[in-house]
Design a protein that fits this description.
400 residues; alpha+beta; 2 domains; six-stranded mixed β-sheet; 13 strands; 20% strand
């Protein structure tokens, strides 16, 4: 029986732990409140830039561009920010700044027609008044447009400069099409389809680009194939009707189906969340985490002490890989007219590319690794090779 002194000491210990936990909780609340206050103050002090307006049209068979850029943000545009209370330059001063403004616009704004870049030649500059202030308007002319133009890609890259936080309102008037969109930091590159079959042309293109992205994304494929390697050990020999031992891959096929399904579901979730702007992480962090996921998977293949559920691992790391897919989709340029169709088609292309890669690698490996010792060698040496590769990738991405 425990003595009264021991019970008392135990009660004191519990009380001490409770008090410690209470103090830590209160400290956490204070820290959270302080962090929120800092965020609110920071957002209140942040310099909110004005909006800009882009109009792309066609005249005499040539592409025409008109852009209105707010005068008070010229410091950011020219990368020579002045004092916050500096008055905007007068109209006569604006004319003397025409050349550097033109150079900055041509550097940060680009248009491609059916994947071919269109050089923008300066035409004129004027001053216009919008509701929120004075704007500089510059007009540009591009090259002749092919009669069968299908796609237009606009890259509005001012957001990378200094503290550009504003939006760009876009209008496309061309070939009896009139499309509108908004560019911001999460949607700085957008793709617009033209013609009668816009929807199906857009979906076909993005399906192709999704498959291309997964085939060019060696790290995504290497992660998936490394996860599937332990499935080799599940192929066994069973007697058939004549008593002969025949290889069966049912367990391996079930293993692969669960892993691929979990990976597909996970990266589809974060792909959608990232594209909608609900989840966002720095590109460097995402790429480093992808390399780390490959390294961890290879290490787990090389040990036998811990039993792991590979489909759960595929789901966990698939969430990270989905953000990598989202970066590829944003670089390609979202179709503002058929946003959901674009997202679905790109993800479908990723799945088709992923499936074709798995089949291309898995079938020869299953045919070659028929003996238990051969399977073990493929698993061991394959995982070692992947481990070394992923370590190099991780170091490169962290130091980039």
């Amino acid at each position: 029986m425990p003595s009264a002194m021991n019970i008392c000491q135990h009660s004191k210990s519990e009380l001490s732990e409770q008090l410690k936990t209470h103090h830590l909780s209160r400290l956490g609340v204070w820290l959270a409140q302080a962090l929120c206050l800092l965020c609110i103050c920071g957002s209140a002090l942040a310099h909110q830039t004005g909006n800009s307006y882009l109009t792309v049209s066609e005249a005499d068979g040539r592409l025409q561009l008109e852009i209105d850029f707010i005068v008070r943000d010229l410091g950011n545009l020219l990368q020579t920010p002045g004092q916050p209370n500096d008055p905007p330059p007068p109209p006569d001063k604006l004319q003397s700044l025409q050349q550097p403004i033109t150079t900055a616009i041509q550097k940060s704004l680009s248009i491609s027609v059916d994947e071919a870049p269109v050089p923008l030649e300066f035409v004129s500059q004027s001053v216009v008044l919008h509701n929120d202030g004075l704007y500089v308007r510059q007009r540009f002319s591009g090259s002749s447009l092919p009669v069968d133009t299908k796609f237009l890609v606009v890259r509005y890259e001012f957001f990378a400069q200094n503290d550009q936080l504003g939006r760009a309102f876009f209008k496309l008037v061309m070939r009896q099409d009139e499309l509108s969109s908004v560019f911001d930091q999460t949607n700085a590159i957008q793709r617009f389809a033209l013609g009668e079959n816009k929807r199906w042309s857009t979906m076909g293109l993005f399906t192709q680009e999704g498959a291309k992205h997964i085939w060019e994304g060696v790290d995504h494929l290497l992660f998936l194939l490394t996860l599937l390697l332990p499935g080799l050990m599940l192929t066994i020999r069973q007697p058939d009707a004549t008593g002969q031992l025949q290889p069966t891959n049912r367990a391996a096929e079930k293993f692969a189906l669960k892993v691929v399904t979990a990976f597909t579901l996970a990266h589809s979730i974060t792909l959608a969340l990232s594209v909608f702007g609900w989840v966002s992480l720095p590109d460097k962090l995402i790429e480093s985490l992808i390399a780390l996921s490959i390294m961890v998977t290879a290490l787990l293949n090389l040990q036998k002490r811990f039993h792991i559920s590979h489909w759960k691992l595929a789901f966990l790391f698939g969430l990270i890989h989905g953000m990598g897919f989202a970066n590829g989709l944003k670089e390609l340029g979202l179709s503002s007219s058929y946003f959901l169709e674009t997202l679905f088609a790109f993800n479908l292309g990723v799945e088709l590319g992923q499936l074709s890669a798995v089949l291309l690698v898995a079938v020869p490996v299953l045919l070659l690794a028929r003996q238990a010792h051969t399977k073990q060698r493929v698993l061991t040496y394959g995982s070692i090779g992947v481990l070394l590769t992923s370590v190099v990738w991780l170091v490169q991405r962290l130091m980039a």
